[in-house]
Amino acid sequence: MEKTLSFASQVKEELVSNNYESMDRLKALLSAYIRINGHVSFKRKETTIILQSENAKIAKFFYSNIKKIYDADCRLEFIQRSNLKKKIRYDIFVDSKGDEIIDDLEISFLEGKISKNIVRNDDSISGYLAGAFIASGSVNSPVTSNYHLEISLNSENYAKWMLHLFSRYKNTNLNPKIIKRREKYIIYLKKSDQIAEFLVMIGATSSCLEFESYRVDRDFANAANRLANFDTSNMKKTVDAAQKQVKQIKYIDEHYGISNLRNPKARLLCKLRLEFESASLNDLAKMMSDELEEEITKSNVAHLFRYLDDLYYRIGGTKL
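The structure corresponding to this sequence follows.
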């Protein structure tokens, strides 16, 4: 029987499947992952960096990028555990240029500080937080209504420095907290909208769309009675929302380019909203279903608009 991938693992696999054209973002990701997940050993004056993962795609990502960027001697080994779950652990050994890598990524295993040279802008901050999440993050499945995302760290000072990165990132309203759980310091988010915003921030947009789809479906189900008694006031809100969506899409097209959206459904929705400004979500869902020859639901359209709303603010849009 094929094992079902957890939502947290799905997010992490999406992050290591992304194309990192920015070297600053990629190095920030590597810096955070090695700082949290790695440790070093010393033999014959040579520093070896050791990383471990239970996910083959994650292990391959870090093995390949460290080898490519630094031309270091790397080994990738796996160990079949003898416990009941019989999980495989993947070990990466960076046998050469360990000191060079640690210096270049400005990693300090003893101090809690995060170098400003590594997180100099939003792009590198999001890369650093992505690396931290891959190393020690978890998020509950969107199927459950118990929303929770966290990053587990072993240093209080380091956790406080990482918390500061959230406040430095522009155009977000994230407000994570820190708690101590046994010997770990946990940065966590519990509000569903903030979890979705964090997923977009670190580059897990597809996972965010899935998360939002479940959330929107649940919200619609809970609001079924109110939607059944839709009145004039609610209709006005719908019209206002449509006008806001049109303005946001025009701004996205001017400053980002609708054609540059990676999600084909989002591109199609932008085109249809601009062409049919007064269409309802149901109307848009039907038109998209006909165009794509697959079933698109009202909730699918709603979470795509949430994604476009997030993108609008990320690229500098102001409140409408």
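The longest strand covers residues 46-53.
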